[in-house]
Amino acid sequence: MRKYTWMSLLCFVMTWSGFIQAQSAHTKLKVDVPFDFKVGDKTLPAGEYLVVEPMQHYVQLRDAWGHVVASALTNGVELSSAAPNSKLRFYVSGGQHILEEVWQEGETHGEQLGQSKVEHETVGEKIPPMADASEGRQP
Fold first, then answer.
1. pLDDT digit string, tens, across residues 5-45
2. Which residues contact 53 (CB under 8 A, 6 or more apart)?
3. Which of 3-17, 44-58, 80-94 has the highest mean pLDDT?
4. Strands 68-78, 87-93: pairing kind
5. What pLDDT does residue 114 have?
6. Per DSSP, what are the bridge partners of residue 3?
7. Cα–Cα distances in Å, from 128 out to 31, 40, 105, 131, 132?
8. CA angle 81, 110, 60 (to 5 degrees)
9. Whole-angstrom distance, CA of residue 113 vs CA of residue 119
10. Which among 7, 8, 55, 81 is least buried, having the fewest CB atoms inside 10 angstroms?
C-alpha cells in the first residue's frame, strides 16, 4: 500500500512540476501598436497589447485588462542569429495591416501566424512585410 501511495505522490509532483515549468515558459511581450490591425479574421484597434504564448505554436493577444482579444495558431520560424529586439512584424494587404510574426529579443526562433480565409484568397496582393512595425518590451 505504501508503494502505491509513493507512486501516486511521485506522479502528482511530476505533473505539477511540468505544469509550473510550462507556465513559466510563456512568452510575454508588451507592445504598443500605432495602427489598427488584423489577427486572423479579427480586426483590432491601435493600442497596447500583451502577447502571450501559453503553449507552443499558439499565440494570444490580451488587452490592458488581461482579456484575450485574439488568438492564433502559429508555425515556428528561425533566424541565423538572435533577434536584436522584441517586435511584431506586419504586412499590408488591401490597405490593412496584418500581424505576421512575433519575435522576442535574444531568441533565434519566432512565431509566424497562419493566414485567415480572406488573406488566403487575396494572397496575390501581398506586399513585403514591414520590419520593426511595433517594438515590444518585457512587462
1. 544 444 444 444 444 444 444 768 899 999 999 998 899 99
2. 26, 27, 59, 60, 102, 111
3. 44-58
4. unpaired
5. 78
6. none
7. 22, 18, 22, 9, 13
8. 155
9. 12
10. 81
What length is written for the chain? 139
Reference 82, options 112, 103, 102; nearest CA is 103
> Both ends of the chain: CA-CA distance in Å?
48
Give every CB contact of residue 125 below 8 A, 6+ residues apart in sequence. Answer: 93, 94
Exposed, middle or buried by CB within 10 Å (0-12, 13-18, 19+), for 56?
exposed
